[in-house]
Design brief:
Shape: globular
CATH architecture of the largest domain: 3-Layer(aba) Sandwich
Order of helices and strands: EHEEHEHEHEHHHEEHEEHEHHEHE
Radius of gyration: 20 Å
Structural class: alpha/beta
Number of strands: 13
Strand content: 15-25%
Number of helices: 12
CATH class of the largest domain: Alpha Beta
Helix content: 25-40%
Length: 309
Amino acid sequence: MTNGDVRIVSLIPSGTEILAELGLLDAIVGRSHECDFPPEILDRPICTQARLNSDTSSGKIHDQVNNLLQSALSIYQIKIDVLEKLQPTHIVTQDQCDVCAVTLADVEKAVATLTHSSPQIISLQPNVLKDLWADIERVANVFQVNSQYLLENLEARVKIVEQKTKGLSQIEHLPNVACIEWTEPLMVAANWIPELVSLAGGKPIFGVTGQPSASLQWEMLLATNPDVIIFMPCGLDLNRTRQEAQLLAHRPDWQKIHANQSGRVYIVDGNSYFNRPGPRLIDSLEIMAEILHPEIFEYGYKGKTWEPL
């Protein structure tokens, strides 16, 4: 199959970014409502929609998600009529999180109803960095394009950070870092996030590498008293993240937390970076390094993708 015959629908932002980095942008004929990068993708037809209102508070979003899941409804709908018109040869989706994007089961159901095409489903399931490398390679193999240059470039950037932070634990106390993925209820970021914290010269105090994100009691956050707190709510940009973080910062005990006292509470654009297991996860690592060790790293992300709270 030549690239001219390939018609890809990407239903996951990280998948869209992987395809774009592999030079397959022109083969993408449809996208999810959340695929927004690179900007050239925005003119492609949208094949999904959310069943919830994401313009409300994090507590209300959480309730909507729970209600949908309890009613055995998916959080997202696939627009089968749009899919039918597009006649894709391939659909890229994910099997990593039911809350982040359409599920593999939803896609399989939708594909079974198509009459004009029977696309191949490519499902990504990244939990740690090496899974991202494997996903890039798998997508490249399906479409018979070369992934070597992209992978070498991404891995080289990881090595640069790793080498610069390698000996830090011998000469200084590595900061204890809490990464907050949701504010109401409080949840800590896991999967690849603890790995990024470690690579960037920090000690992740919640969340286990490769495991799903877990809820956290407020008392536990106070008791562990982190040196650094980074807010990265799933799906929220920098402005929304600031609003959510400020609500938490109004709690009376907030003043007692070491990270707050030392001015080491930060907000990041989790939606574009940390929550998306695509190539920009390496930008996320560099952002993390810049936050944790500004004396060593200066990539120029500050003010654009992260800020002190």
